[in-house]
Write a structure and sequence with these properties.
Order of helices and strands: HEHHHHEHEEEHEHEHEEH
Number of strands: 9
Bound molecules: zinc ion
Strand content: 15-25%
Helix content: 25-40%
Largest sheet: 6 strands, parallel
Radius of gyration: 19 Å
CATH superfamily of the largest domain: TPP-binding domain
Distance between the termini: 29 Å
Number of helices: 10
Strand order of the largest sheet: 3-2-1-7-8-9
Shape: elongated
Length: 272
Amino acid sequence: MLSGEAGNNVFHVISNGKGNPMDDEVERARAVVGESGRVVVLTGAGISTESGIPDFRGPSGVWTKDPEAEKLATISHYLSEPDVRRRAWRSRVDHTGWRAEPNAGHVALVALEAAGRLELLVTQNVDGLHQLAGSDPGRVVEIHGTMREATCMSCGWRGPMQETLDRVRAGEEDPPCLVCGGILKSATISFGQSLVEADLDRSFEAASMCDCLLAVGTSLAVFPIAQMVPFAAAAGARVVIVNGEPTAMDGLADAVVGGRISEVLGTICGAG
Ligand code: ZN
């Protein structure tokens, strides 16, 4: 399935010939999650696109439409080119994420947590929508960082992004760190930057001890974090994949559900 129409409902698991194959697979996914006391969730861009946040590499993704924009997220360009930083700050001010609201997919994971069965929620998203939906920040690992904070590349200062964006709105095109004068950046992990070791350790440890690994809205093509799925499976966990398009790891899964995440995740998590 190569087409990229928004909201496509293509079902990509072979039906058993009885009833609606989509319903069968949602039911199977619901059963697997329902039988699992300790669920670890891995989410990607697909859970936030319905909140109006574009993904980066999809058919209408930010970098697909404007390859130059990828430079803004590459650490070597960012540190060496003031013009790249000025463009990055402008795009942060204009980011659609500031107006985005969590959707039913985020809410479904809050319900799973409320039922006492969510061990850890690892997200590749930097939008903070899981916490806005009500997920306990203590159970959320933002493996690629957060757009809601700014950080200094020299002294490590961190603070709310909006305070730095206010300086940009007031006319500072490339605001320096107020502590040390260093270069400020969104507290996201750029290309060329390392992931936080402690976050990786926590994610893989949880994956090794869970009953079910539930992957939502991720193509499972970004490493090393996608390795959580085969890692969990090798440790005996069952795997459920919910994604609009097939993933490279569908073959590992006990259930694979296509379609719109906001419409199916509530049922799968026992919330609807
Ligand atoms: Zn500093």
